[in-house]
Amino acid sequence: MDVTVVVDGGSATRKIVHHHQQRQPQVAQIGTVQQLFAGGVAGAFGKTCTAPLARLTILFQVQGMHTGVAAMEKTSILREALRIVHEEGFWSFWKGNLVTIVHRIPYSSVSFYAYEQYKNIYKTIPTLSVGNWTNPHSDILGHFVCGGFAGMTAATATYPLDLVRTRLAAQRKTMYYKGIRHALRRICKDEGFLGLYKGLGATLMGVGPNLAISFSVYETLKNQCLAHRSNDSSLVISLLCGSLSGMASSTVTFPLDLVRRRMQLEGAAGQARVYHTGLFGTFRQIICKEGARGLYRGILPEYYKVVPGVGIVFMTYETLKKKLSSDGPLS
C-alpha cells in the first residue's frame, strides 16, 4: 500500500491518500513429495466426507441397466437411502470407500501434481502462453488445457482401481466381489486383463473435460475473489470457488460419467451384457430406452456430493500446501 502526503496551499492540513493495490494470489512453493502428499490427502478426505452421496449417485446411474423405466420412476433419493439403511445397515453407505481411498490418494496426487507440471510446460511455449500467467485474469485456456491433460493422466494411471470401486459400490445383497484383491482377480479371470480397463474411453472423454472445467473455473474465480475481496479468508474462498467449479464441471460431463459407470458394470458378477455397441451406441441405447433424462439419472445426489466435496478437496489442498511451504501462516 502506497501512502502520499498532500499539503493544501500553505496550511498545515495534511491529507493521507491511500492507494490500494489489488491482492495478488500467492503460490505456495513445495516439493514433489509434499505436492503428492497434499493432493492425495485432499482427495481422500473429500471423498470420505461425501461417500454416502457418491454411493447413491452410482446406484441411480446404473438403475436403467436391469430395470424397467416404470420401476425407476418410483425411486427417490430418500427412498433409496432408507432402503440401504434397512437392507444393508447405515455403514453400508461407505461400502467400497476403502477402495475409493486407495484409488483417490494416487488419483488426486497425480492430478494435482500433473496439473502443476503441465502448467510449467505450458509457460515455456510462447505461442500458447498468451497471458504468460502474470495476473489474476490471465489465460483461462492454459488452466483448461493443463487441467484436461492432468485429468487424463491421473485417470489412466489409476483406472483399474476406479473400475473395482464402481463394482464394489454397486453391489447390493449379493456380494460377488469380496474386496479389492478378490475383485481384481475375479475380473481378470472372468473378463481377461483388459476387463480392468473396460470403459476407459468414456472415462477419458469425461474426466479430461471435467478437470479442465474444474481447474479453469476454480482458478479464475479464486483469482477474481482474491483480487477484489482482499479481506476475505483465502481458505473460505477456496471452499466456495471449489464448490462452484465442481457444480459446473459435473453439469457438463455427467452424461459421460453415467455411460462410463454402466460400461464398467457390463458383465459384472456374471450378469448378461446390456450394451454391445460401444460408447456412442450406449448413448443411443440409453436415450431410446430412458429418454434424454436418462443421461442425467442421479444428477441430484451428484450435486449434493460435488458441491461440498470438490470445495473440501481444493480447500484441503490449499491448506496443506501452505502448511508444507515456507510462505507463512494460513490466512
Question: Could you provide a short overview of the structure?
Answer:
The protein has helices at 32-49, 51-61, 69-73, 77-88, 97-123, 140-170, 180-191, 200-228, 234-264, 278-290, 299-324; strands spanning 2-7, 14-19.
Largest sheet: number of strands, sense, barrel closure: 2 strands, antiparallel
Strand proportion, as a percent range, falls in under 5%
Rg, rounded, reads: 23 Å
The chain-level structural class is mainly alpha
User: Uncertain regions: pLDDT < 50 for 5+ in a row?
Assistant: 1-25
Q: From the structure provided, what is the oligomeric state, counting identical versus distinct chains?
A: single chain
Number of strands: 2
Strand line-up across the major sheet: 1-2
> What is the number of helical segments per DSSP (H or I, 4+ residues)?
11
Can you give the helix content as a percent range?
Answer: 55-70%
Globular, elongated, flat, extended or rod-shaped: what is the shape?
globular
Overall pLDDT confidence: 80
- Helix/strand order, N-terminal first: EEHHHHHHHHHHH
CA distance, first residue to last residue: 18 Å
Strand and helix map with partners:
Layout: E1 2-7, E2 14-19, H1 32-49, H2 51-61, H3 69-73, H4 77-88, H5 97-123, H6 140-170, H7 180-191, H8 200-228, H9 234-264, H10 278-290, H11 299-324
Antiparallel strand pairs: 1-2
Description:
By secondary structure, this protein is mainly alpha-helical. Helix content is 65%, strand content 4%. The chain contains eleven helices and two strands; from the N terminus they run E-E-H-H-H-H-H-H-H-H-H-H-H. The chain has helices at 32-49, 51-61, 69-73, 77-88, 97-123, 140-170, 180-191, 200-228, 234-264, 278-290, 299-324, and strands at 2-7, 14-19. It has a two-stranded antiparallel ribbon. A hairpin with a 6-residue loop joins strand 1 and strand 2. Helix 6 packs across helix 8 (200-228). The longest helix is centred in the middle third of the chain and has 31 residues, at 140-170. The protein is globular. It starts with a strand and ends in a 7-residue tail after the last helix. Mean pLDDT is 80; it is low at 1-25.
